[in-house]
Amino acid sequence: MSGGRSPVAFVATAQPEYARHALAELRQAAGGGRAEPLAEGVFLFQPRGDPEAVRAGLAAQPPVFLRHLHPVHRALALPDLRPEAGAELRSEAVADACGSTASGLAPLVEATWDLLAGGGAALPPPGAAVQVQVRRLGLRGGPSAFAVKAALDPVLAAAGFRPVSRDPEWVLSVTLCGAPAESRGGAAGQRLAGDGGSAGAAGACRAFLGLSTPAENLSPWPGGAIHYPRAAVISRAAFKLMEALELFAPLGFCLRPGDRALDLGAAPGGWTQVLLDRGLQVTAVDPAPLDPRLQGRPGLTFLQGRAGEVPLPPAAFDLVTCDINWHPLETARTVAARAEVLVPGGWALVTVKLLGGGNPTAIWRRAADILAGAGLRLVAARQLFHNRDEVTLLLRRAD
Ligand SMILES: C[S@@+](CC[C@H](N)C(=O)[O-])C[C@H]1O[C@@H](n2cnc3c(N)ncnc32)[C@H](O)[C@@H]1O
Questions:
Q1: Which end of the chain has the lower number of beta carbons within 10 A, N or C?
Q2: Nearest ligand 1 atom, CA 237
Q3: What value of ipTM does the predicted structure carry?
Q4: For 170, what's the count of Cα atoms within 13 Å in the CB-facing half-sphere?
Q5: What is the pLDDT of residue 204?
Q6: Phi-psi bin for 335: left (phi > 0), alpha (psi -120 to 50), beta?
Q7: What is the mean pLDDT of the chain?
Q8: Rounded to an integer, what distance in angstroms lies between the CA atom of residue 320 and that of residue 306?
Q9: CA–CA separation, 72 vs 6, rounded Å?
């Protein structure tokens, strides 16, 4: 797999428990293809037909469980990075970071130069901000992500691009893999068993290299994973809202200071805290009490009770958020019954639990149908990195 500018495959990522649903989405977009597990929730996907058509297929039917996808323009072996050679490779990684030319990453550097040097439509425009995003899968030892970025940033600069560490316009994705999952006999291999053979020898280190935009990757973060500091939030649930705000920003979803938000299922108060911190007026509703740290926060009104029962005025909110841990269809019915509290054009962000063992796609679609029946149009549905057995729906009330 080397030479051309079209992707020959994709590295795809989903929550491990939902990887087969992500694979189904990818197969539908690609018109078929085979998958090789690389790690828990990560697989190499080789489309049956034209790889260029995969993007169009995903654009026509945006995936929900497929969290991240990067193209593979070059796939190569890195023989000097064998997983067994952990100790000396770690010290070599330090040398790499200091600019040493004695690098086991030389084939990767060459492949990157080869990819960037040829010109063509798939290249970023000159001067574009390009971030090297590195993932290490099943590698014991070997260079750190930092060392790989340190080795490739000068190549980007020499090719006329601007290496960055955040907010990229383009991404150079590097997935480094240890032994193929099947040869390790791991759970990842078993989950997607029967999807195709391994492309590499057991024990070999492989690198998958691809150039794309964050939008094409379905996420601005490597593997679609974003980590926030725990210390700052009242509950981990806050991470869901923080992630949704970043991921859905390109769709126009944003919080404006002074906006009025209704937070259903608010306790202990992680989402409420995020909304208050961004300058919104928040009405929080929950039968359970809020965390004492929220007491006295300006802009906060707490209504202790059930979402379906507390009195609320019509057209009084710019945003409704709902993170109720309840049956998904009951949650949808509750929000639908409250749809009139939103102003026309107002947003709703709803967590749908995938409980009960049914088909997860059928569950979230049924919930979205109920919400659509109340005039809340589905804008996006995604299983976020911080969603576990959930899908997050972004909706908008008709103008
Ligand atoms: C996952 S927690 C919400 C976490 C919250 N978003 C945060 O950031 O801290 C789910 C909440 O839903 C609440 N809940 C359950 N049924 C409810 C209902 N009918 N109306 C309002 N809240 C409800 C529970 O009391 C619980 O506090």
A1: C
A2: 8
A3: 0.99
A4: 19
A5: 66
A6: alpha
A7: 88
A8: 15
A9: 8
Is 340 in a helix, a strand, or coil?
A: helix
CB-CB neighbours of 93 under 10 Å: 25
Numbered ranges of CATH 3.30.2130.30 in the chain: 9-224
Distance separating alpha carbons of residues 334 and 230, to the nearest angstrom? 30
357-386 pLDDT tens trace: 789 999 999 999 999 999 999 999 999 999
Q: Are the C-beta atoms of 398 and 375 separated by less than 8 Å?
A: yes
d(CA 142, CA 270): 38
What residue spans of the chain are helical by DSSP H? 19-30, 52-60, 86-97, 106-117, 145-158, 181-184, 187-191, 238-247, 270-277, 328-337, 360-373
Phi-psi region of 98 (alpha: psi -120 to 50; beta: other; left: phi over 0): alpha
Kindly report, as residue ranges, where domains of CATH 3.40.50.150 are found in the chain.
230-397
9-224 maps to which CATH number?
3.30.2130.30
DSSP code per residue over 98-120? TT-S--TTHHHHHHHHHHHHT--
Q: Is 353 a catalytic residue?
A: yes
Residue position matching structure tokens 């990157």:
112
Please name the residue that has the structure tokens 């509750």. Answer: 334
Alpha carbon 179 to its chain's center? 25
Alpha-carbon gap, residue 148 to 131, rounded angstroms: 12
The pick from 274, 286, 291 for probing ligand 1's pocket by mutation, whose C-beta has the most ligand atoms within 8 angstroms, reads 286
- The 8-class DSSP code of residue 125 comes to P
Structure-block tokens of residue 18: 């939902």
Given the residues 34, 136, 353, 386, the one annotated as active site: 353
Structure-token match 């590195």, residue found: 134
CA distance 342 to 397: 7
Q: How far apart are CA 91 and CA 141, in angstroms?
A: 10
| Angstrom distance (rounded) from CA 356 to CA 326 | 11
Query: Given a cut of 50, is residue 13 above it in pLDDT?
Result: yes
- Residue of 236, 263, 325 to mutate, ligand 1, most atoms within 8 A of C-beta: 325
Give the residue-averaged pLDDT of 92-113. 65
Asked if 392 and 382 count as a contact pair (C-beta separation under 8 A), the reply is yes
CA of 330 to the centre of ligand 1 (A): 13
